[in-house]
Known about the structure:
heterotrimer, B: mainly alpha, two-stranded antiparallel sheet, C: alpha+beta, Alpha-Beta Plaits, 4-stranded mixed sheet, two-stranded antiparallel ribbon, 12 helices, globular
Amino acid sequence: MYDGGKIIPGLIIFVLFITFPIWYNRGNAGTVPQPELPKNYKQCVLPDADMRAEHMQLLNRWRDQVLRTGDRSFDVKIGDTMYQKSLMNTCMQCHTSKKKFCDRCHTYASVKPYCWDCHVAPVE
Amino acid sequence: MFEKALKGNKYYWMWLAFLGTFMAIAAFCYVRQFNYGLGLTGMSRDVSWGLYISQFTFLVGVAAGGVMLVLPYYVHNYKAFGRITILGEFLAISALLMCLSFIVVDLGQPMRMLNVILHAQPRSMLFYDMIVLNGYLFLNILCGWVILTAERKEVKPPKWIYFFVYLSIPFAVSIHTVTAMLYCGLPGRHFWLSAIVAPRFLASAFAAGPALIVVVALILKRVANFDVGKKALDKLATIILYAALTNMFFVGLEFFVAYYSNIPGHIHTIEYLFFGLEHDGHVYNNLVPFMRMFVLLFVVGVALLSIPYTRRQSDFWLGAGCTALFISLWLDKGIGFVLGGFVPNPLNEITEYYPTANEIFIALGIWAMGFFVLTILYKIAIGVEHEIEA
Amino acid sequence: MDKKRRDFLKIAGATTLAGLGGPAVVERLVTGTSPAQARAGHGEHPVAHGAKTHTAASGHEDNNAPTGRRLGMVVDLRKLRKQPELMEKIVHACHAEHNVPHFPNKKDEIKWIWRTKFENAFPEHSDYYKDKLTIAGDVLVLCNHCDEPPCVKACPTRATFKNKDGIVAMDYHRCIGCRFCMAACPYGSRSFNWRDPRAGLDMNHINHRFPTRMRGVVEKCNFCAERVGLGKQPKCVEVCGSTKAMIFGDLNDPDSEIRQVLKDNFTIQRKPSAGTHPSVFYIV
């Protein structure tokens, strides 16, 4: 290999550089975020674990059903009450704080969902 | 072969640096636009497409114009085009890159660009435009590269490449036809709602593309010691002349239909473009100078290409004639056609469009990017030619 | 060689044609109707059509099958002319309901429903010797929710589409902001968010039950799909209340109020020559 003396150390530096966040934190994931749950309600649309893993797919499904299919029926069962499929008019009615609920995990996971470019978070 | 682009004289690098400066300015301006929104342009609710889409439309023509070299050379075996055809193919590549960039900078949500594929709507002409533009880009890269590589090795190009060469001919026609269909299928816009838009686009493309190639070929003769040959240039001048005249004939037909039928919707835009449109006591005419210049330069260009002396005896006058026609056709299609179509708006109101500085710099930067790519591609092509000769 | 080339060109041509015409043919085969029949279903023979679709709707839930509803509107200009303040109220209520931003700069303007002069709303109507009322009174214009919407055809991502109620709806999540629909609309009903719309809204006084939009997407009147879906009337119609200046209902239901009004009055539509079959009618 030509210039092996330059290429190999260069590659090593590059790999170290891009993996910087991993070895700097030494596998420590930091403090696990604690989103604040609503006090007056015990149940959500799905069990906790499913909501945690799949709330984005659920929201996308609701969005397509409401907007594209035009199905605006109140067919979401939470406890004994039926709700409509809506981020602003259902989810955020219980989860009254975007900052203390949504943002805590999203900030931790460094995801920036564009929901809030249009949808309006409850007044805090 | 890319290494050929890395060796050049002082002027080569100065030229690239010059273009690079415009590209850098455009990148800066685009970041501004990306962060603020398209409100930084002069576009409005009434004139909802501006400089970007009009440049896109014109450049699709420049890209399609390359077929005027491919067709005689490969289909009719016109040997004189042997050295110039690669210029056409490579011009198509850079013109298409400009087209695609103009589309992207015009999008309100460029991050969602792939929705055109993810949620494809086969009834939309934009869907087909995406297919043919990308297809034609791919074909030109493939054909140009394979043939140039073969030339460098001084062997015949592989047989299979001719399939793609012939395929690129209907693609060239289709890119501009489909681009015309973006406009001529819209029910509410009288100026665009005309079956002659596609033929007119093709005619103007077959003049503008080759005109640019002639100008570039004349420059290359001086600066790069690369002569495509007198015969090729003369034949191209003939092609340009007929195509330009055909375009003007079609424009004349638009005038006839509008004024003889006396249908207001048909007259309004033409009136606005060439004479100024009076509305509520105010005359709107900001595009009139451009359109009159279009006619003037057309006459000059056609004259220079028709008179035997200016066409055959002098590179300068041939170049001047082609430049005049290129600018003339740019004014026609790259300014008047798209911008004029929005006046008056569907509610018979008039809003005039003035591009902003930010918008102009982005457009200039994309043109610079196109010429940057073109320079590099031509450098490679000419480098290969010189290598064979040496 | 020559023959081969000709064959090749033939095949290439045929493939291109198939590519262009294919989707339309497939659509025809799938739905089993020709455009002409579909039109008749919407207009001339609504009884049979309505009955058929009722069973279809109660039977199986096929979202793509037409349910036969086609929501429409009659705007009674005679009534609106008498009370221009009502027009103001309607525009304001609609824009407040849907968080439509207000930008003083005309370049950034966004509007869903607005007042305009008769000759602007109906540019194809002769303007010789107009009567006093037509000259003096304004017209309310909004999206026509066409039966044959050119914007839907133009949209490359299906971000704008006709829903099962005949409403031409927008999916703001999907819009790429190419503005092809704005060029395609013969009525100038569409607005583009040239900048962040929230800059034109008082965020403390917005409707918290409806989203705003983001910059870079096209927006327009949605016939209050979010209200109609819950069985309510569109906001503008609600504001008109008992004046009946605007009437809303199913154009395909022969017993609906709107059909009765259409039967009893001479109505006109904006640019019928564009072949879009608007669902908004005007009583002059």
